[in-house]
Amino acid sequence: MQLSAPTLKLLNDVDGFSGSKLRRREDLGFLFELAHVSNAEDALADLSFQAKFLSRTFGILQRIGRGAEGADRLTGECERAIIAVREALRILVAGAPEGDRTQFSTRYLADSPEALQELLHLSYDLSWHKNWLLDHP
């Protein structure tokens, strides 16, 4: 999918804001473009909120370890956040061309360890979008 000028500007702004730490820049741009052309910026903002929660919760869980006190509760929170992010992604990509939607779904929404890892990387990038939104109201 070709990115429009407003999408490229947003993507470059978020990438710069992150210190060029984006892991899935191209796919983040794809989501930005989908939100732009379908007038779904609110859905994108909700997705970014959910993704930031997932990214932070997963990071805490990794830091404390699965055997630590409270890890069971955090694991449950992670599982709920994964479901929320996947659902928000499904909604946002529903309007994408079929080939793009299929490719995106295979990469991020499949029920596999690889897709989960990809989802976590994309969530990290979306968390930078959420931080950028908070800094640029």
Decide which structural class fits the backbone.
mainly alpha
Number of helices: 6
CA distance, first residue to last residue: 27 Å
The share of residues in helices is over 70%
Oligomeric state of this protein? single chain
What is the domain tally? Answer: 1
Keywords:
mainly alpha; 6 helices; single chain; 0% strand; 137 residues; 78% helix
Structure description:
The chain is mostly helical. It has one domain (5-135). It has helices spanning 5-17, 25-37, 41-64, 71-93, 98-108, 113-135. Helix 2 packs antiparallel against helix 3 (41-64). The chain is globular and about 50 Å long. The two termini are 27 Å apart.
Gist of the model:
The chain is mainly alpha-helical and 137 residues long. It has helices at 5-17, 25-37, 41-64, 71-93, 98-108, 113-135. It has one domain (5-135).
